[in-house]
Amino acid sequence: MGREVLNGDAVVHWIERAAEVIGENEKYLTELDAAIGDSDHGANMARGFAAVRGKLAGQTRDDVGAILKTVGMTLLSTVGGASGPLYGTLFLEAAKVAAGKTEIDRATIQQSLSAGLAGIQKRGKAEPLDKTMVDALGPAIQAFEGAAGLSLAEALARAAEAARQGAEATIPLVARKGRASYLGERSAGHQDPGATSMWLLLRSLAEAAAE
Amino acid sequence: MLPDTKEPPAENPAGGSPVPPATLNAASMVSMPAVPPIVTTVPPIVATIPPIVTTIPPIVATVPPIVTTIPPIVATVPPIVTTIPPIVATIPPIVAPAVRAQRFLRLVEGFFFLGIGQCAFGFAQVLVNELRLRSRDVRPSLGRHRPHREPCTKHGNDEERANEILEHEPPFLPGTCGRQAERQASPRAGRSHGSLAVSILRRHPRPPPFRLLPFPLAGRASLSVSSASMKKLLNAPSDLVKEALAGMALAHPDLLRVQFDPAFLVRADAPVRGKVSVLSGGGSGHEPLHGGFVGRGMLDAACPGAVFTSPTPDQILEATRAVDGGAGVVHVVKNYTGDVMNFEMAGELARDIGIATETVLVNDDVAVENSLYTAGRRGVGTTVLVEKICGAAAEAGRALADVAALGRRVNEHGRSMGLALTPCTVPHAGKPSFELGPDEIEVGIGIHGEPGRRRAKLEPADRLTEMLMEPILDDLPFRAGKDVLLFVNGLGGTPLLELYVVFRKAHELAAARGLRVVRSLVGPYITSLEMAGVSITLLQVDDEMVRYWDAPVHTAALRWGV
Ligand SMILES: Nc1ncnc2c1ncn2[C@@H]1O[C@H](COP(=O)(O)OP(=O)(O)OP(=O)(O)O)[C@@H](O)[C@H]1O
Ligand SMILES: [Mg+2]
Predict the structure, then answer these.
(1) Residue A113 pLDDT
(2) A41-57 helix and A26-36 helix, angle to the nearest 10 degrees
(3) Which in B75, B95, B148, B226 has the greatest CB count within 10 A?
(4) CA nearest neighbour of B204 among B165, B161, B175, B162
């Protein structure tokens, strides 16, 4: 069925689902990173999300902003690498938007994701098509905006699908940001690991909303 | 197949494992397999099986010296070579009766004919297989059949699945995407498994040239996915950094202290009141950088991240707080996106609690050519020199802004480039981050096992040295008549013996451009786990830099003047 707002339980469920999926795909993400980076993205993300899961276990769930802040701070202090500050920023910016709210509706979700994207771009200075996680999150937000007539779950599923396509579309790109950029032309032909983990995160969100 | 069972995540992912180079190299020993006896002639009556001689080759332990050349008169300290004489174990000849010898002969004969038979069969197999392969379309499947990139949520480790398929099923065409392979292998498999596609495609980007494959793996040899095993002194990968840090603390209590949760190292007498502190950090796996440089005259603190992963802001903040003596803290940061962002956030947090920080960004790697379209040049060898010179300036009582300005000047005048002879294996990944053929090298390598700018053929050391020195010398800022510090760095798996060969040629090339090598450093100081390879750093020095370079330093990895 699905719901039109996400409460604290749903948000925690989302993060737990994401932790699970990222754990399952640790090797896959690391393999993508081995091709154009330094073989650590899967390990970084799995370590971070496992820590987040532990942190959330003892957290009250009446403030979505507080939950997102815990997620952001934990990722910041456990992921490391480039993706740590970036995913940390995503959640911390989203937390600011959702601060004090017991549940978040469509508009808040929209604003949270947009604030998160802005934070990532401010911190990492990546533009679209630089072959980064921005290439998954950007299209996802656009798709979410464009799915006004659909239910929340359907709109998030659209967003996740756009993120998947965005991640796949990084394959032919030459990286201009992050470690992959050192490879120059040789970075083309490989999918960006950060864009892929971003898609997994958004897919988990869509799944959590559909339940 | 079940999803991967994962290592439980580290309590605290960050830690550091600087190990002084001496410890690393002294342990490397060479041993060669004994040559088995070959029985050729058996005399008619008395059969004498020749003696079996097992020769254990000499074990040579080379303890790498810490070499600092103090020009112009004092020469370099020679390496200390401890040679343990060869141990030769001789087993006396066994004389067997004639009957046994005859039986033995017959057995040999039997094996011989069996061998010929198998060979013939093997070749037949090879031919049939090759013909089968050639008769089908062997283009890489990317264009025709775009593999699905959806990672498999069911089979966490698709590498294993790929192995399984390739192990039990008839050979697939090189370039067969994972989905096709899976379909062919098990028609019941419904879903596509994208990462499987990735692993097979990456290994077999195009069909191999027509050639006969070695017996007896004929048909499969070109297609099997080899899983290179990792050989490391490890307990659990997730404990590696933490355990190495604990070892460091025990080995050098006079020099440093180690803190956990979050993990960092500080010099034993930190914080030093009124002194500017110098802090650096980065992923582990580059030891002795940075923890091996903590001590008097160099770093006040080091923040080690997980292997090849930058440390986190909370870690950097705590270390900054622990060493601040009231005069501010200089952060020496290698230019990698992750390090830059984590240090940036830590700097903001430090400012919030009233600690003044300055950042010296090191970006000296000339292998990264087009800095407009990249994240900028990477920080490599010059980092060691910045840390030494800034550390000495801070020790001499210079102010925060001065120490930072000096560090930036060192960075501006330093250039580096490296090459890899072998890849390295990140413990968590469990297999090399790229593959190199027996005669291939990776030119323009960084220090994280990431592939470099191009592949090249292995050539003599002098030619390889030219390959590194030319881009360095062609870059700014080297001018004839200037003084330079020449730093030849081992990437972890290359012996000092070879580094000196490179040093010799690099010195010659610098001299040919009219540069005077007035200081030198040779050894593994900024490494990439067990990677074999070398990097060269050239720093154009001025009097102030030389003065601070010569100043006393006492750390686990660098020590002179005290
Ligand atoms: N400037 C940036 N802006 C946005 N995303 C980025 C940027 N730099 C890197 N990324 C993303 O981060 C991913 C890599 O993350 P990972 O966890 O592997 O860190 P890393 O690059 O290895 O960090 P480090 O350099 O510290 O080792 C890339 O795939 C990319 O999507
Ligand atoms: Mg990486």
Answers:
(1) 98
(2) 140
(3) B148
(4) B175
pLDDT value, residue B230: 87
Asked if B168 is an active-site residue, the reply is no
Local confidence band at B393 (pLDDT 50, 70, 90 cut-offs): very high
Work out the pLDDT band at B374, boundaries 50, 70, 90: confident
Question: Is the pLDDT at B170 greater than 80, yes or no?
Answer: no
Please name the amino acid found at residue A140.
Answer: A
CA distance A180 to A182: 5
Min Cα separation A146/chain B (Å): 24
Residues of B in contact with A85 (CB under 8 A): 313, 338, 341-342, 344-345
DSSP 8-state code for residue B277: E
**What pLDDT is recorded for position B370?**
56
Q: Identify the structural domains of chain B with CATH numbers, from first to last.
A: 9-32+234-560 (3.40.50.10440), 37-219 (no CATH)
Looking at beta carbons, which residues of chain B come within 8 Å of A21? 153
Extract the tokens encoding B319. Answer: 């270390």
What is the SS3 assignment for A17? helix
Residue with CA closest to ligand 1 atom 5: A132
Tell the CATH topology of A5-210: 1.25.40
Mutation choice for ligand 1 from A36, A83, A131, CB with most ligand atoms inside 8 A: A83
The angle formed by the CA atoms of residues B490, B309 and B429, to the nearest 5 degrees, is 85
| Nearest CB neighbour to A181, from listed B194, B309, B374 | B374
A126's tokens = 């990546």
Distance A82 CA to ligand 1 centre (A): 4
Task: Write down the pTM of the prediction.
Answer: 0.69
A203: β partners? none
Q: CA-to-CA distance for B277 and B393, rounded, in angstroms? A: 10
Q: Which CA distances in Å does B508 have to B474, B515, B531?
A: 16, 10, 26
Q: Is the pLDDT of residue B1 over 80?
A: no
The confidence score (pLDDT) of residue B452 equals 75
Chain A: nearest CA to B294, how far in angstroms?
22
The Cα–Cα gap between B531 and B492 comes to 5
Say whether A77 and B314 touch across the interface (CB within 8 A): yes
More confident residue, B335 or B373: B335
More reliable by pLDDT, B281 or B135: B281
- pLDDT given for residue B115 in this prediction: 54
Place of tokens 């892929």: A196
Q: List chain A domain ranges.
A: 5-210
> What pLDDT, in 10s, does the model give residues B462-500?
999 999 999 999 986 778 899 999 999 999 999 999 999
Among left, alpha and beta (phi > 0; psi -120 to 50; other), residue B285 is left
Picking from B543, B544, B546, B541, the residue whose alpha carbon sits closest to that of residue B515 is: B541
Pairs across A and B, CB distance < 8 A: 174
Q: Between B392 and B179, whose confidence is greater? A: B392
Is there a contact between A164 and A205 (Cβ–Cβ < 8 Å)? no
The tokens of A1 are what? 């069925």
- Kindly report whether the peptide bond that precedes residue B72 is cis, defined as omega within 30 degrees of 0: yes
Question: ipTM of the assembly?
Answer: 0.85
- pLDDT at B265 > cutoff 80: yes
Contact A82 B341 (CB under 8 A): yes
For testing contact with chain B, the best of A21, A22, A28 (most B CBs within 10 A): A28
Query: Using one digit for the tens of pLDDT, what is the confidence trace for B90-112?
Result: 333 343 455 565 665 565 555 55
pLDDT for residue B6: 38
φ, ψ for residue B265, nearest 5 deg: -115, 140
Give yes or no for B297 touching A (CB within 8 A): no
Best mutation site among A32, A134, A177, A202 for ligand 1 pocket (most ligand atoms within 8 Å of CB): A177
Contact check, Cβ <8 Å, B374/A176: yes
The tokens describing B167, both together, are: 């192990």
Q: Is B148 an active-site residue?
A: no
Beta bridge partners of B63: B80
